[in-house]
Amino acid sequence: MTEYSTKEKNKPVDVLEEETDEGNHLVVFNDDFNTFDYVIESLIKICKHDAIQAEQCTFIIHYNGKCSVKDGSFDNLRPMCEALLDRGLSATID
């Protein structure tokens, strides 16, 4: 059995800080304007999805009305969200 000193037991863990920093979601919403191919192409180009992942997200967006397409810090997701908006997609960071 491993023994831990008192200092090691009471050492603060930064896990919560990391989780809150990475706990944002880039959400894309369904609309009646953009085609499947256009959404797939956008997810590949902007979010760096592979073709299968982009296609699956696009079907989820279509059938569920929205999909969290990327997780991460707000600072990392913001440029992606803006690029998707610039392409005419509906997206937010939650």
Spans of at least 5 consecutive residues whose pLDDT stays below 50 are 1-20
Q: How is the main sheet built?
A: 3 strands, antiparallel
How large is the radius of gyration? 18 Å
Number of helices: 5
Number of strands: 3
Beta fraction: 15-25%
Helix and strand run: HHEHHEHE
| Structural class by sheet pairing and helices | alpha+beta
In round numbers, the mean pLDDT is 85
Biggest sheet strand order reads: 2-1-3
What share of the residues lie within helices?
40-55%
Name the shape in a single word.
globular
For the termini, the CA-CA separation is: 44 Å
Question: Secondary-structure blueprint of this entry?
Answer:
Blueprint: H1 6-9, H2 15-21, E1 24-29, H3 36-47, H4 51-64, E2 66-72, H5 74-86, E3 90-93
Antiparallel strand pairs: 1-2, 1-3
Helix pairs in contact: 3-4
Structure summarized in a few sentences:
This protein is 53% helix and 18% strand. By secondary structure, it is α+β, with helices and mostly antiparallel strands.
Walk me through the structure.
With 94 residues, the protein is α+β, with helices and mostly antiparallel strands. The protein has a domain at 34-94. 53% of the residues lie in helices and 18% in strands. The protein contains five helices and three strands, in the order H-H-E-H-H-E-H-E. The protein has a three-stranded antiparallel sheet with strand order 2-1-3. Helix 3 crosses helix 4. The longest helix is centred in the middle third of the chain and has 14 residues, at 51-64. The chain starts with 5 loop residues before the first helix and ends with a strand.
